[in-house]
Predict the 3D structure of the following.
Amino acid sequence: MISTRTPVIELRRLHRFFGSTKAVNDISFEVYAGQVFGYIGPNGAGKTTSMRILATLDLPTAGDALVDGYSVINDPDQVRRRLGFMPDAFGVYSNVNCREYLDFFARSYGLKGDDRRKALQETMAFTGLDVLSEKPISGLSKGMKQRLCLGRAMIHNPSVLILDEPAAGLDPRARIELREMIARLAHAGKTVLISSHILTELAEMCDVVGIIEQGQLLATGSVADIQRGQRSNSRVRIRVLENTQGLADWLTTREVYDEIVIDGELLHFSHLGERAEEAVLLKEMIEAGFRIAEFGARHSTLEDVFLNVTKGRVQ
Ligand SMILES: Nc1ncnc2c1ncn2[C@@H]1O[C@H](COP(=O)(O)OP(=O)(O)OP(=O)(O)O)[C@@H](O)[C@H]1O
């Protein structure tokens, strides 16, 4: 089915080269209203470079990036109006308090009078900073600084938020709170692009993820889709008391079990099916007369998926 929805964020064959470094090398994807898109890749993959282009802080070597249909090349002002960017490094100004910091950015966006007061109040309430409004930034925890930085990115009520590694360095509680804030943003109809080099960190907060390495998008889809696309869903290990070869032959007749490796009394193979099928397999092996002493299945974790998709290449 052809989608008639217009993407809120669109990367169209985006390229950005720095000399011989292909930081972004032909990346295309679309993100729709209210979606949270996880941009995952190892260090140096090209995440920050593409996010900076979307935030109109850099220009592509070729291709384009669009926000609400506006090109970062031709309509950067329109893009800026619609977008809030949270960079991976927190800006300084540590000698001001939270309210003053947000007020400064509200003024730079041209907000005046009641509109500015309302924006400040709403942003501080959303980020939970209202109770800390007079606290100097220098005294804030890492989690609170991240909230402040998110507040700064959303002070002008943008429809799109670009968050570069917001979960990095957060403790588990602050990470859960960040996840909740992002869910609320998506619920309010905002479109969020969020990066990390850890798939597990984002898996629960994203509708769709894109895995990037060496400037190229290697896989996109829901985490479940990407997991399904992997060859080995689980590694099964069986110890049989005798007739290991006989069991291997018996398994080979069943098409779902391939690449069977025999190692003494042990058999290993990959399995692409459901977990329930493993219970059926165990029952059938025993019924077929094989004396099974051990049976174990290790399901691929999100880390395995990430390692399978990426190759560990750096540039
Ligand atoms: N201004 C620049 N000049 C030269 N090379 C650059 C510049 N900015 C980025 N690069 C290079 O482009 C590549 C991609 O960098 P980028 O910062 O986009 O990666 P990243 O995925 O955000 O990584 P990280 O997770 O480490 O932040 C790297 O090889 C980096 O060294």
